[in-house]
Amino acid sequence: MQVHHLAKNNSILNTFLHELRSISIQNDSMRFRRNIERIGEILSYELSKTLNYSSQTTQTPLGDKAIELPNKDIVICSILRAGLPLHRGVLNYFDHAGSAFISAYRKSIKGTDDFEIKVEYVACPDLENKTLILVDPMLATGQSLALTYEALLQNGNPKQVHLVSVIGSMQGVDFIKDKFPEQTKLWIADIDNVLNDKGYIIPGLGDAGDLAYGVKLQH
């Protein structure tokens, strides 16, 4: 797996990461969602440089111009619910792409601090020979991404796989390296070194789904 860690080089990305992490700013849920969306756009721009292109002739009012355009074979899949703002950011740049949605959530194991990942809902177009962009803002343990990919394979085998995340843990990145095809590319804004015993990224930013859409009931 090729890991593209964008925050290793200074850019305007740092501003959006700062605002996502800051407890004095992140409670503005509209701004939180917008910052995830903007990071999705930045990651998509970098990802776009590695796609397959073909030449097409564009007619202008004054003549013709050959332009290399990306092939329209992309499917974007987001993990509900936290993935929705990131999905929108990626879709802003790949607006001709198909969309897939999947639920993957942590179900607590009663009487313990442990949890298991549950996948219960999949809505997906045909993935056979497509370019799959799988988006999840928080790459914590990596289990959600791995189980999501396994579930999606029932809809066909993609020719290329790109993973897009905002913040991950080094443990999660290492975990998924053996769960995806060798040529998979991970596009991630920033990577933190610590994952605590409850599976949360430290310092991370908290619960992305709650910050984007409000606190949920725990079951």
Query: How would you state the average pLDDT, rounded?
Result: 92
The total tally of domains equals: 1
Structural class by SSE content: alpha/beta
Residue share in helix: 25-40%
CATH fold node name:
Rossmann fold
Distance between the termini: 35 Å
Query: Tally the helices: what do you get?
Result: 6
How many beta-strand segments?
A: 12
Q: How large a portion of the residues is in β-strands, by DSSP E?
A: 25-35%
CATH architecture: 3-Layer(aba) Sandwich
Main sheet specs:
8 strands, mixed
Low-confidence segments, ≥5 residues, pLDDT <50?
none
Query: What is the element string, with H for helices and E for strands?
Result: EHHEEEHEEEEHEHEEEH
